[in-house]
Amino acid sequence: MVSVKELNEKILTEKEPIYYLLYIKSSTDKYVTIINSITGEMLYTHYTPVSYNFKSDDIEDVQKAIMKN
């Protein structure tokens, strides 16, 4: 585990991209997005209505999206 300060430093100085996973859960839906830290490109984004939790299928979809890039 790294501190917030160390993570910020790594994001700002790293030559290799860091991929951000954003998981937003509303009262009825979920959004999952992966962003490349260097380019800002959204590598994966998915909205699922009437779904609340991050599931193993989400991990598999995210992994496929990252492997494409």
Your description of this structure?
The chain is of the alpha+beta class. The protein has one domain (about 15-69). The chain is about 35% helix and about 35% strand. The protein has two helices and three strands; from the N terminus they run αβββα. The chain has helices spanning about 5-15, 55-69, and strands spanning about 20-25, 30-35, 40-50. The protein has a three-stranded antiparallel sheet, covered by helices on one side. The longest helix has 13 residues, at about 55-69. The model has no long low-confidence stretch (mean pLDDT about 90).
Supply database-style keywords.
alpha+beta, 3 strands
Q: Describe the sheet with the most strands.
A: 3 strands, antiparallel
Strand content: 25-35%
Overall average residue pLDDT: 88
**Number of structural domains:** 1
Spatial separation of the terminal alpha carbons: 26 Å
Work out the helicity level.
25-40%
What spatial form do the alpha-carbon principal axes imply?
globular
The structure class reads: alpha+beta
Radius of gyration: 14 Å
Order of helices and strands: HEEEH
Oligomer: single chain
Number of helices: 2
What is the β-strand count? 3
Task: Strand order, main sheet: write it out.
Answer: 1-2-3
Uncertain parts: none
